[in-house]
Amino acid sequence: MKVLITGAAGFIGFHLIKALQAFDHQIVGIDNLNDYYDPQLKLDRLNILGLDSQALNTQTRLEFGKLLFIKLDLADRIAIAQLFEQEKFDLVVNLGAQAGVRYSIKNPHAYVDSNLVGFVNILEGCRQTQVKHLVYASSSSVYGMNTKQPFSTDDRVDYPISLYAATKKSNELMAHTYSHLYGLPTTGLRFFTVYGPYGRPDMAYFSFTQKILKGESIDVFNNGIMQRDFTYIDDIIEGVMRVMKRIPAVQESELTQVQAPYKIYNIGNNQPVTLRRFITAIETACGQKAQENLLPMQPGDVPITYADVDDLIADTGFKPSTSIEEGIEKFMNWYKRYYV
Q1: Which of 164, 198, 205, 335 is labelled catalytic?
Q2: Rounded-to-5 percentages of helix, strand, coil across the chain
Q3: What pTM did the predictor assign?
Q4: Which DSSP string corresponds to 150-184?
Q5: Which one, out of 13, 32, 240, 328, has a CA that is 20 to 30 A from the CA of 234?
Q6: Do residues 162 and 103 touch, judged by C-beta distance below 8 A?
Q7: Contacts (Cβ under 8 Å, ≥6 apart) of 337
Q8: Cβ contacts of 324 within 8 Å, gap of 6 or more
Q9: pLDDT in tens, the chain (340 residues)
Q10: Helix or strand or coil: residue 25?
Q11: 265 is known as an active-site residue
């Protein structure tokens, strides 16, 4: 197949391309390499994929084997349309987005440009060139302050509490519209707190590790009693790759007669972990205790995320299973090689 991966230099995009390189696919990866976090980490990811990231100082395209990387912004409507027309993709995996809950409070326009404008550009490219399947990243944040546990894809998700969550819910609605109107098969993946080697430095486990090793205090919100369904990156990639091969059948809504080849899955560990256990796992891997600065819950945060993955298991035969202790140890082994 010819596959487009957006957010190719991002955490999940990098790991997905790395896994796909073992197969005989033509892969095109795009990323705008923005500075939301240290761009050097993104460039290092590209280097591991076999690309010479230094060449991006003078050009916007890099090639290695069957991988083509293009520095490109999702919001560039004309360039995205040209890319689809030139390459004729069989499959698209849209992982490119402006991430982060708290940053959406500071810089809302970045989320509109990337997550809304960029996503409709991807949808249009898929429609115009008859892409066989669009898989796209949604987020557990769409569940907002839902109290029913675990979170099910059958639950109402009409009350997001951050702009980031609102854009991800919007992506699901936009995809459903294109599935219904144009018969474009789309599958949305609600990721639950993804972590692991080469992860995003803005995530809590990353900053906790950094500060504990330096002997600095860490900010612990809500007294550490929040719970998260942490999902190790290898589990995420396995789930994504299985979903890529499973084009959704036409389904009819239980409430209406609307039909669409459309599906949503949760990808989470199905075993929520308290922030306290999470910190303990990091302390154990670091070999030293944390100094804690206890703070109230932050705006846009939720007390618990907990994924119902029954649909994922039934349709793909896969369930994430890496424990937080095992995953954090693997992350720590990478972190010490890369930073220390």
Answers
A1: 164
A2: 45, 20, 35
A3: 0.94
A4: SB-TTS-----SSHHHHHHHHHHHHHHHHHHHH--
A5: 32
A6: no
A7: none
A8: 230, 269, 273, 277, 278, 281
A9: 999 999 999 999 999 999 999 998 999 999 999 999 999 999 999 999 999 999 999 999 999 999 999 999 999 999 999 999 999 999 999 999 998 887 888 899 999 999 999 999 999 999 999 999 999 999 999 998 888 889 999 999 999 989 999 999 999 999 999 999 999 999 999 999 999 999 999 998 999 999 999 999 998 988 888 888 999 999 999 999 999 999 999 988 777 778 999 999 999 998 899 999 999 999 999 999 999 998 888 776 778 888 999 999 999 999 998 999 999 999 999 999 999 7
A10: coil
A11: no
Which residue bears the tokens 């997001």?
A: 160
b (16+ CB within 10 A) / e for 262-299: bbbbbbbbbbbbebeebbbbbbebbeeebeeeeeeeee
Q: What's the rounded Cα separation, in Å, for the pair 146 and 154?
A: 12
Q: What span, in angstroms and rounded, lies between the C-alpha atoms of 90 and 227?
A: 39
List C-alpha distances in Å: 204 to 70, 130, 228, 312. 30, 40, 11, 27
Q: Is the alpha carbon torsion for 178, 179, 183, 189 positive or negative? A: positive
What is the β-pairing status of strands 250-252 and 259-267? antiparallel
- Tokens matching residue 268: 């989470």
Show the tokens assigned to 192: 């639950």
